[in-house]
Amino acid sequence: MTTVPPEGRRPDRKPEKKAESRVPRLDVPREIRSPLWGRVLDRATAPDQDRLGRFAERFARFMGTARFLIYMTLVVAVWIGWNWLAPEGVRFDNYPFIFLTLMLSLQASYAAPLILLAQNRQELRDRVITEQDRQANARAHADMEFLAREVASLRMALGEVATRDFLRSELRDLLEELEERQRADEDEADPTAD
Question: Using an 8 Å Cβ cutoff, are 79 and 107 in contact?
């Protein structure tokens, strides 16, 4: 004789796992890394990634300002002006301005990955916000459906409830009927009145 546990499961069966836990979610980023080196590097740089990410966001935010453009324009103008108008002995980058080109390329080569890192972090934040918005919308939709059902049930219930006008008309009918009975009773009691 076997006893059935409270949930209705048999003791020899293991609880079934949800299929959702095995299916990867589409709104969660999949990490791309090599099997060995990626894990070692992730563990070693995990605290620094957040710091680097914050720096990248500040850097990208600064590069998108008018102040940065003005500073960059001033640096290039002073560089060209110095190397074009200064005496021959104090110039450090002559006319083709190769060193200036090298410095601008170096700045761009560091700026591009930092800007991409900042964009990736913003994308992850946007995904989280989108998921929260989706959940809030689903809750609001469920609340609206519940309220619509409640309003419909109230309308149905009000259809069965007597209204003030209905009660007045019924009372008038009863009053007229009582008056007719009273007259009929009076006529029966006094047959000579006619």
Answer: no
Q: What is residue 14's DSSP assignment? A: P
How far apart, in whole angstroms, are the C-alpha atoms of residue 83 and residue 81? 6
Assigned token pair, 67:
């102040």
Contact predicate 53/117, CB 8 Å: yes
The position carrying tokens 């007719």 is 180
For 75-120, the pLDDT digits (tens) are 999 999 999 999 999 999 988 899 999 999 999 999 999 999 999 9
pLDDT tens sequence across 112-138: 999 999 999 999 999 999 999 999 999
- Residue identified by tokens 């099997």 is 35
Residue with tokens 């590069």: 63
The answer to whether the beta carbons of residues 27 and 127 sit under 8 Å apart is yes
Per-residue pLDDT for 25 more than 70?
no
* Single pTM value for the model: 0.49
**Domain membership of residue 78 as a residue range:** 48-119
| Assigned domain for 87 exists | yes
Asked if residue 93 lies in contact with residue 83, where contact means CB atoms within 8 angstroms, the answer is yes
> Residue 74 and residue 71: Cα distance in Å, rounded?
5
Any domain includes 153: no
Residue 126 burial by Cβ neighbours in a 10 Å radius (0-12, 13-18, 19+): exposed
| The pLDDT value given to residue 85 | 92
